[in-house]
Structures are given as structure tokens and as C-alpha cells.
Amino acid sequence: MSGTPSGGPASADAIEIRHCDSLAEFHRCVQIERTIWGEQITVPAAIFVVAQHTGGQILGAFDGETLVGFTLALVGNHAGKPFLHSHMTGVLPAYQNQGVGRRLKLFQREDALKRGISLVEWTFDPLEIRNGHLNFNLLGAVSRRFIPNCYGITESELHGGIPTDRLIAEWWLDSPRVERVLASERSPDENGGSVAISLPADIAKIRSTDQSQAIQLQSRVREEFQRRFAEGYVATTVISREDAMEYILEPAASIPGLRLPEYRPHESED
Description:
Layout: E1 16-19, H1 23-37, H2 45-53, E2 57-63, E3 66-78, E4 81-91, H3 100-114, E5 119-124, H4 129-138, E6 142-147, E7 166-172, H5 176-184, E8 195-200, H6 203-209, H7 211-230, E9 233-240, E10 244-251
Helix pairs in contact: 1-2
């Protein structure tokens, strides 16, 4: 792949989603990483090879012969049960906001279920509200774990010099909740007993122009998520208000169509 295509497809349906299975395709995934995230956090092709040979997934989105997006997942284990840790999903800028990322995740779900895997997890930045919307509202994932400064403070422009706090998304692939969300293609309903964690609607602008304010907001959000998770709440939805974006958290027992396994305290971090 010589570079970013000049234009995207008419719709996500024009894109073919399939497995990547050659070293040449893995190197093309690495080129997409560099285009989207820069060199500092690029995963080398060798990790794609390891994932392929240890039961992971490397999925590609192709516009004709051109690779325009990918998903990389590694195999994990919770109490003897395998799951997939989806480490990266990236789509070239010209193809973003057209449903390509969602199609990659839906293919990931279908493939995992065929293999008898019912859980996919991944980390995401709670300040990236667009990712929260995709994860919760469009895929039906939930979150009840928070890792402060997960990857350390990096030199990547993407991270903006602030701690890399991360929520862990849990995607219970065959749960009634996920099936309902995917079938309706609309946000889950907000239930009684919920609480909200609010961010300014212009959080993206704040991150790019005022690092000090971004760090203050991040610290508040970190404290609120950690406190609510400790109280037994689960993040389920993102809602857009007039001047704010809100994460909605609900008591675990009140979430329709989802019976979560017991919380794993050894996997949480202070």
C-alpha cells in the first residue's frame, strides 16, 4: 500500500471484510498504524505473526485490493475460559465515519462465536467519547474496570502528553443485550437507578489546545469511574446533551439482558 487513498467508498457495504493471513498483509496493517497513530505506538508485523499462530485474529477491511482498515486481537484467558483481547482497530482517515470500524467488529464477533469464544475485550480512552458511543451504543459492550495510565505517558501526539487512562470494554457476544443492540441499531435504553459521568461536548478541542485543563478533566473522570465501579456500577451508554457528553452507569443487576460474571478484583488497578 503506497499511501492513503484519496477518497472513501460510497458506503461501508462496498468494503470486503476478511482474514489477513500473509506477511505482506501484516506489513500493510503496520503501514496503516503509522498513518493513523504514528511511529511511537506502532506494533510491528512480528506481533501479527504471533497472533496468527497463537489463535488470535487479524481482520482486514479491503476496498478492492487496498487494505483500508484492520483489527488485531490476541488470545487471553479468564479462569480457564478463552477470550479475545482486541488490541487495535484502525481505519484510514478517508474511510472513517462510514461504518467500516463497526463492520470489522461485527466480523470479529461472528468469527469468535464460531470458535466458541463469547467474550472480546479491549481498552479505550474515556475522553474519546466517539469510541464510547461505538462501544456501548452501537455494539452493546459494557465496562466495569478502569486502568489509570495503562500504557504510561508516551511521546505520541495521539496521547497528547497526558496519562493513558483506559476503560476496559467487555463485549459479551451472545448475550441478549448485545443481540438486542445489534438488531435495533440504536442506543440501549437508560434505566432507573443510573448515574452519569459528564464531559464537556468540546473535550476534543480542549485536549488539543489546553493540556492543563485536559489533565484536570481526566483526573475528575478517573476518580468518578473508580468510585462508581467500586460501588458496583457498570458503564453502559453514552448520551449527548446540549453542552455535554455523559457516560451512563447502571447497577449491574439492573442491566436488561446481561448477567455478568463475578467481578475479578485481581484484574483491577488502583
